[in-house]
């Protein structure tokens, strides 16, 4: 119970600490204008007009334009569409906008069906150490930040269940499989049957970690449908199942090659060592992402690049290490080991590294 209380307290602290201290200086709703049926500029009438616009007033260097909406809207800055189907809140530096777009800067907001009561446009001072991105090139809005916090909480709870119900496989997963004495090919008790409930739960847990990292990496594209908490959680769940399916497929392929080359039990050892190492690596990456969420609102490219670099180094290291491990026990079959690993490890590893580098 103390551990559970600590987990909830920790993530609540992350959520609270990640919020910016906002001091509202001016509400720009009084300056909203729209177009009537004849195309003439007129005063805005709430819920009856789909478009509002206003010119950005002069502000001090410390003030920011804050736009927030609980409903999906399109945001235009002069002739530039900078947000499509956006919900949430975002800030812009007026000085940067004037430098990029010229003066005056016209902000236009469109909402299908009429602007509702949830749209906020304010001039505010935001006291925060978060890193703001380029407003003309915003990061992908393919995943809800609140969903990511919930996913991290779910994964922490599953870690507690994993440790309680499957303590042996948990100890293997959170200790690096890099010691020959602990997990040698001859130590059968160090490895579970692939079809055991322990191993399948480990694979599913690993898939959940990978899916969470994919959301942090920004691989989910911008969708036409609005990004909501429910859609983000559903995306994570579906991606988790897809990763688990690839995990089973990879084992099946390595099992087939192991049967052809008469490598008894090698595919199971290969699979479990891979999952054990990368559970540890993924946990470290998600820990870094939690720091990014807490301090920088997912705006730190340095931390994101750090997680990608860590994964690239882990993939390279694992490929070399698994070869030398197999070679130690089958040194007379080097060619077969290389052929086996080429299609089960080296080629997939190269594709993963290429994909990770493309994320930069």
Question: How is this structure best described in words?
Answer:
It is built from nine helices and eight strands. It is of the alpha+beta class. Strands 1, 4, 5, 6, 7 and 8 form a six-stranded antiparallel β-sheet that branches. Strands 2-3 form a two-stranded antiparallel sheet. A hairpin with a 5-residue loop joins strand 2 (33-35) and strand 3 (41-43). Helix 3 crosses helix 6 and helix 5 (197-217) crosses helix 6. The protein is elongated. It starts with a helix and ends with a helix. 26% of the residues are buried. The model is unreliable at 16-20 and 129-141 (pLDDT under 50).
Q: TL;DR of this structure?
A:
With 360 residues, the protein is an alpha+beta fold. Helices cover 53% and strands 16% of the residues.
Contiguous runs where pLDDT drops below 50 for at least 5 residues: 16-20, 129-141
Mean pLDDT: 78
Indicate the proportion of strand residues: 15-25%
From the N-terminal CA to the C-terminal CA, the straight-line distance is 41 Å
Report the radius of gyration as a whole number of Å.
Answer: 26 Å
Class of secondary structure makeup? alpha+beta
Helix content: 40-55%
Helix and strand pattern: HEEEEEEHEEHHHHHHH
Can you count the beta strands? 8
- Major sheet size, sense and barrel closure: 6 strands, antiparallel
């Amino acid at each position: 119970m103390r551990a559970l209380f600590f987990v909830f307290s920790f993530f609540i602290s992350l959520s609270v600490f990640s919020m910016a201290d906002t001091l509202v200086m001016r509400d720009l709703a009084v300056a909203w204008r729209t177009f009537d049926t004849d195309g003439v500029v007129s005063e805005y009438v709430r819920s009856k007009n789909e478009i509002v616009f206003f010119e950005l007033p002069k502000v001090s260097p410390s003030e920011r334009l804050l736009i927030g909406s609980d409903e999906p809207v399109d945001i235009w800055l002069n002739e530039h569409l900078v947000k499509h189907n956006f919900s949430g809140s975002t800030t812009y530096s007026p000085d940067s906008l004037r430098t990029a777009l010229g003066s005056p800067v016209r902000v236009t907001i469109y909402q299908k069906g009429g602007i509702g009561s949830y749209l906020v446009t304010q001039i505010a001072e935001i006291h925060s150490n978060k890193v703001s991105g380029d407003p003309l090139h915003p990061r992908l809005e393919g995943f809800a930040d609140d969903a990511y916090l919930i996913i991290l909480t779910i994964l922490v709870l599953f870690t507690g269940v994993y440790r309680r119900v499957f303590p042996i496989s948990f100890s293997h997963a959170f200790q690096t499989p890099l010691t020959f004495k602990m997990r040698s090919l001859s130590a059968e008790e160090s490895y579970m049957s692939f079809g055991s409930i322990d191993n399948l739960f480990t694979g599913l847990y690993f898939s959940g970690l990978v899916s969470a990292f994919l959301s942090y990496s920004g691989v989910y594209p911008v969708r036409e449908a609005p990004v909501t908490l429910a859609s983000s959680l559903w995306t994570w769940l579906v991606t988790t199942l897809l990763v688990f399916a690839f995990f089973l497929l990879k084992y099946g392929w390595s099992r087939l090659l192991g049967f052809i080359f008469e490598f008894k039990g090698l595919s199971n050892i290969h699979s479990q060592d891979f999952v054990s190492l990368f559970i540890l690596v993924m946990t470290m990456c998600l820990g870094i992402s939690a720091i990014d969420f807490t301090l920088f609102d997912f705006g730190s490219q340095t931390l994101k690049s750090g997680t990608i670099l860590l994964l690239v180094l882990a993939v390279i290291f694992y490929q070399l290490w698994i070869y030398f491990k197999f070679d130690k026990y089958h040194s007379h079959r080097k060619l077969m080991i290389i052929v086996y690993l080429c299609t089960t490890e080296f080629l997939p590893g190269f594709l993963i590294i290429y994909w990770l580098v493309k994320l930069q």
